[in-house]
Known about the structure:
The protein has 9 helices and 7 strands, in the order βαβαβαβαβαααααββ. By secondary structure, it is α/β, with parallel strands linked by helices.
Amino acid sequence: MRKLEVLIVEDDMRIIDINKRFVSKIEGFEVIATATNGMDAKELLSCTRPHLVLLDVYLPDMLGTELVWYIRQHYREVDVIMITAAKEMEMVQEALRGGVFDYIVKPLVFERFRERLESYREHVIRTREAVEVDQEVIDQMLTRRLVAPRNRDVLAPKGIDLLTLEKVIEAIRQTGDKGVSAEEIGREIGTSRTTARRYLEYLVLEKKARADLIYGTVGRPERKYRYLP
């Protein structure tokens, strides 16, 4: 299957850059255009016909939910994932009524973003391959937002918050083979060294990370953590 083409509609250029960087890390996707307002988005939709739109709610010239309904009216084959700080129930319901595939609340965390896009990619593959569907396939399509794509989405042990865990995973992933200490992770995500170490040791226990003792010239050896893909 060729890459799924993505249009990003977001008024904050910093967020656009983050979204583009995140998409580039996920196999099977390619950002083909970006827009900072609804009018530009409409023009780009007409000439690019993307598979997926990553859409913010608050745009300078319209609400993202208005653009959702425009897409539904003119480009029914285009899917939408909302990425927004809007948490009002009315806004969420309006987006869901418009048929968005998913609704992700900022701040954006890569692990969560990756899982949602991978879920979307699997949905596209499943629906393209199916000529005829049974009730089980229909149930999977209707409940896709409720299906946990990875074991990490089940209830975490006591003392482990899933959102904080995602932040730790993203921080340790970015360090690559260099490794990182609990103190460095704590500074990166805004927690104490003790809290960061608790999450890092949990990842070691889950075989998602490796811990090594690094001996310096003076003082005690330092425990460095590396992400295990």
